[in-house]
Amino acid sequence: MALRNSQEGLIMTEEWQVDDLALCISRHERYPPEVRPGAIFTVRAVLANMPDLSGGAAGTALNFIDVAELGPHAAYCASRFRRLLPHAPDIFDAEVIELMRGLNDAGR
Question: Which end of the chain is more exposed for a tag (fewer CB within 10 A), N or C?
């Protein structure tokens, strides 16, 4: 998915890869009910230059693990998803992990 930074005229590409996590941000009427805003899926396949059946420009499309395919010549439009990037644990994460460890130790 190409994004244009209007201030600098730069084009950035969101490089989808197999095993990325994808957050659904909008739903197409053809999508199964489980593919809805807020749902997170694991990418199984990335398809470049997938034709837009509604006449729009070709773009990146995705297929997901454990989600029905839309057909032999269709996939989920990547523009309806945001790539979730892992982050290094921060102080908040460390505190949550310590609290969880305490709860697990107390339950033994």
Answer: C
Please report which confidence band the pLDDT of residue 14 belongs to, taking 50, 70 and 90 as the band edges.
low
**pLDDT band, very low/low/confident/very high, at 11 (cuts 50, 70, 90):** very low
Give, for 4, the enclosing helix (H) or strand (E): strand 2-5
* 4 contact partners, CB below 8 Å, separation of at least 6: 10, 11
- HEC states along 22-83? EEECCCCCCCCCCCCCCCEEEEEEEEEEECCCCCCCCEEEEEECCCCCCCCCCCEEHHHEEE
Coil, helix or strand at residue 3: strand
Instruction: Tell me the C-alpha to C-alpha distance, in Å, between residue 35 and each of 7, 20, 22, 47, 88.
Output: 34, 16, 11, 18, 28
Q: What is the pLDDT of residues 73-108, one digit of tens each?
A: 788 899 999 998 877 777 877 888 788 777 656 655
